[in-house]
Design brief:
Blueprint (H helix, E strand, L loop, with lengths): L1 H17 L4 E2 L1 H14 L6 H7 L3 H10 L3 H15 L4 H8 L6 H11 L1 H13 L1 H13 L14 E5 L5 E4 L2 E5 H10 L3 H11 L2 E3 L7 H20 L12 H25 L11 H4 L8 H13 L3 H6 L4 H12 L10 H14 L4 E3 L3
Parallel strand pairs: 1-2, 2-4
Antiparallel strand pairs: 3-4, 5-6
Helix pairs in contact: 5-7, 9-11, 11-12, 12-15, 12-17, 13-15, 15-17, 17-18
Length: 363
């Protein structure tokens, strides 16, 4: 009887630990105070703005984005034009060409959706357990059963600027715009993507310097490509609750991905190949070198060929990802097929490092 009571108490406490995970949305409500003043035509002074930006999560995010003081001050001025009624005419003029006035467009979306964003935050705070359960269900779609855990030690913070998400150490930082619109489209999918990065096991091994860039490339492609199957597959022209540019992201990744894969293949097929001279920004020859673009393209080819289950089974393995892509691409007349030279290189690296490798997972 005592053992049963202890077990029940332990289970209860464990569940409470898991669902202690919640949003920190403090900066969002501070932001709404600022915007209320702006709506009353009260300018946003530098002191107030800089004090607001001292929020630790905002600092983590801005540092990752690499912005400078000029950018920060310009953002403040943009907020004054967007939110202050006396600047309405100037705002409308800029919104006629959003691509040339991008941050006016982004900040304006914060303004016009403010009430709905407040409700979104309030609803999640009422029941964070359900929200995180939903996120994890998307994560688990691309994880074998034994890796379907939770990561309660990760802080999740929403910040009311920009349009992206960032993970650093045990911290996930989402911009309110990204979280709000993506959750409106498919509740929890974006969080599922980020938790996949945390929970996905990885095949780890020490790499010789000459092979480091190639192996890092393979790991990046798998990391982003596999996570994209938790959320990007729900984005597209029919995802009408996303903003137009958000609906286009996956299609752009796939279109650019074919070109990037072709470029990678051409560089890895050079004979003789000086591996130590390879550079990541030359292999992934676009602005985003995270692995998202080639990874999204390759995982899409794998998914369409019906190999999602097999990819999930080997979710830790960057070499298996390439083998699956090779098999899938040969079934798709529109897919780019990697050269035999590149495939031989991947097999060589696999043979070289697999005996030393071990699978590491979230504890």
């Amino acid at each position: 009887m005592i053992k049963q009571i202890i077990f029940t108490l332990f289970a209860f406490l464990s569940s409470q630990m898991v669902y202690s995970q919640t949003f920190d949305d403090t900066s969002c409500w501070e932001y709404f105070k600022i915007t209320q003043d702006l709506k009353n035509n009260k300018p946003l002074d530098k002191k107030t703005w800089n004090q607001f930006l001292k929020n630790e999560a905002i600092q983590v995010y801005l540092n990752d984005q690499g912005v400078d003081s000029t950018y920060i001050n310009n953002y403040r001025k943009i907020m004054e034009i967007v939110y202050m009624p006396k600047n309405a005419a100037a705002l409308q003029q800029r919104l006629k060409n959003p691509m040339n006035n991008w941050w006016f467009y982004i900040v304006n979306e914060y303004k016009v959706n403010e009430d709905q964003m407040k409700k979104y935050l309030t609803d999640i705070k009422k029941d964070p357990k359900s929200y995180f359960e939903t996120c994890y269900q998307y994560t688990y779609q691309m994880l074998p059963k034994k890796y379907q855990k939770k990561a309660p030690n990760y802080k999740v913070t929403i910040i009311p600027i920009h349009n992206d998400a960032h993970i650093e150490s045990s911290w996930m930082v989402y911009s309110l715009m990204a979280a709000y619109f993506h959750d409106a489209n498919k509740m929890g999918a974006m969080g599922g993507h980020e938790f996949h990065h945390v929970l996905r096991p990885q095949l780890m091994f020490e790499v010789e310097n000459q092979d480091a860039v190639i192996v890092n490339l393979l790991q990046k492609i798998l990391n982003e490509g596999s996570a994209d199957l938790t959320d990007k597959i729900y984005e597209g022209k029919d995802a009408v609750k996303l903003l137009e540019f958000q609906r286009e992201t996956r299609a752009e990744f796939i279109a650019d991905g074919a070109k990037v894969i072709k470029n990678i293949d051409s560089l890895l097929s050079v004979k003789p190949l000086d591996r130590s001279a390879l550079k990541m920004n030359k292999l992934i020859n676009i602005g985003n070198t995270s692995g998202h673009v080639p990874g999204c393209y390759m995982s899409d080819i794998i998914y369409k060929a019906g190999y999602k289950k097999e990819l999930t089974k080997h979710i830790e393995d960057p070499f298996q990802f390439i083998y699956l892509y090779d098999k899938a691409s040969k079934k798709d007349k529109n897919a780019y097929v990697l050269s035999s030279t590149t495939m031989d290189l991947v097999r060589e690296l696999d043979k070289k490092y697999r005996p030393k490798a071990k699978v590491e997972q979230y504890q």
